[in-house]
UniProtKB/TrEMBL annotation:
TM annotation in the entry: 238-258, 265-284, 296-314, 326-348, 354-372, 379-400, 406-426
Segments forming a coiled coil: 434-488
GO molecular function, one term: phosphatase activity
Keyword annotations of the record: Coiled coil, Hydrolase, Membrane, Signal, Transmembrane, Transmembrane helix
Domain of life: Bacteria
PPM-type phosphatase domain: residues covered: 497-711
Protein name: PPM-type phosphatase domain-containing protein
Keyword set includes Transmembrane helix: yes
Signal peptide bounds: 1-20
Protein source organism: Rhodohalobacter mucosus
Amino acid sequence: MVSKLLIILLAFTVQTGAEADSAEAQDTLSISADQDFPISLEQDLSDSLFFGLDELETEIVTNEQLTDDDRIIYIRDQWKFMAGDNRAWAAAGYDDSGWDIISTNLTSADLSFLEWDGIGWFRKDLMVEPELRGKPVALIVDRHLGASEVYLNGEKILELGEFSIYPEEVETYSSGEPPVIVFSGDSLQTIAVRFINPDYEQTNELLGNSGFRFLLGDWEHHRSGTYNFAIFWTGSNLFYIGILLAFSLIHFLIFFFYPVEKRNLYFSLFVLGIVLVSYLLYRIEMSRFTIDVMEYYRIMMMAEVMVLVLAARFTHSLDPESSGFYSNIVLLAGLAVTALIAIFPGTLIFLRDITIFLLLIEILRSLFMILYRRKSGVWILGSGVLIFVLGLIVSILINFEVIDGSVSFVNMGASGALIFSMSIYLSREFAATQKKLENKLLELRQMSQRALKQEKISKEREIEKRLLEAENERKSNELEEARALQLSMLPKKMPETENFDLAVFMQTATEVGGDYYDYSVDQDGSVVLALGDATGHGMKAGIMVAAAKSYFHSLVHETDTLTMLKRMSAGLKNLNMKLMYMGLILVHCKKNKLEIAVAGMPPILHYNSKTQTVNRITLKGLPLGGKAKFPYKMEDLKVEKGDVLLMMSDGLPELFNADREMLGIERVEEVLQSSNGYSAGDIVTQLKQRAESWSGGHSPHDDITMMVLKVQKCL
């Protein structure tokens, strides 16, 4: 019972006491290796070790012993034994008083006191009451690890397996149906068993015994009970194994189609291992402790370790914080122990037990860590573990007859609940992963749609940009042509006169500037100078400049200075260019007299060479193109040799530096103040240098135009 209970605890499967449960269901009972007998285990063991008995009492077999529910007559396993082989030992009257008394189980303790090479004879006398004589009685083979011939009163009545004195020709007994014997008319019956186990060393090492055990029972009852048990046990195991295989296949297919979820693979292999253990337990139970059990036990020892290794691997995969290296070490250690057990199955049982204990501790540790971290859905796994533990407790109580119940069904239900909870947990995790993937896919689609929309917008903007660039290029070309046209309309150089030294400089802020300068020389030698500044820049400013130039040359010699300003203002106003105006300075130079008229321009600076001072000439007036009849003013200025007159647009004094400070008229005056002895061109150069140093080489924000007149000769 203890060994089978250990299998329950370690392999999560059905305990091998199920034949008793199935027999109860069919109102029949069959005997298993763990059945409790009227003879205690301690007495059984002590008798097997007691070789000094001189006499073995004859057991009495009565019909009343069959009145119990199990319909079994329990025969003590202490028989007389003699190693070797002699057919004469089968005779009913043979004197066996010198034989040893030993347990037919041939345990390790028994064999330690025997010199046995695998073949020997057992004898036992029974006193059979008349009610049992002359009718079939079942010989219940509770254990049989070899082949034997059974003699009743000197006559061979049964051969269990195929007996041979040659070990290689022996075929061990493996039938499950109880054979029948019929006692003769005498009360005293002698049963002799000629027994051989050529593999006694292996069976003793692996199973702990090498012999047999016989009981008697009601033949009809046990024949039908054996049949019913085989049907029930086979059906229930096939059903249970089928369910496990379905779980294993489903999760393997999930892994096959979604290899990222490796825990489905570990769970599938774990369940497949339980299937193997369940099948081995089924085969062990159906073999009824014949020699076939030995190979099943050998495989079982390896399977138990591997099932728990896979269980540990599975629980590690449930914990995202578990170390993969540590999990691999556990796997390799389990494989190494399994390999050693395969090579040395009998001598390394202790290693298997230690490994199983450590693996159970590791599985419980992993489950505890998962529960401790309170991972989502872990309550499902915890519920399955709780049901499984409760099932183990109930199984233990049933085995110790504290409560009534079916151990098989309890363990099937408990292990099934554990596997079912694990499957639900994995399915829930898989569904959650799929849901996350769907959400991510939805987000990706939305992002893709936004990206496509953005790409469409970007392409539209790119097209617009290219169209705009093309349009700008076209306009730039047009403006460049307009600028070239504008510059072509400006004088290439200033006139050279006997009285005046003239120099001019203009820098536009855009392709087509709004500044304008011009001159006209009359027949009498007088010179009219013009310097203007149209509001704004670009094409409209260029049109204003062109119109102003046209008016200037049309009116310069026909009217006086003030009349020309008024007529030009009226003409520009008629152009109907909204918010476009023209500032203008007109200087009519007649020998040493200058007539100055200003319309919306900065002050004119006059350097007096005699006093070496700079004076501002400020004449306030609206720009041209505004009020039709504005009363412009004019000022006459007499100049001397060396005097300098500076006319400029507002782009020069309003030039900014890096600190957003304007150059200002004062700094222009400083340059002019130091212009004594310089030509008009030199003065322009100094003003240009001052402007460039002030702006730091940056392009101006407004057009800059300056015109310098220096008096060379005074008439």
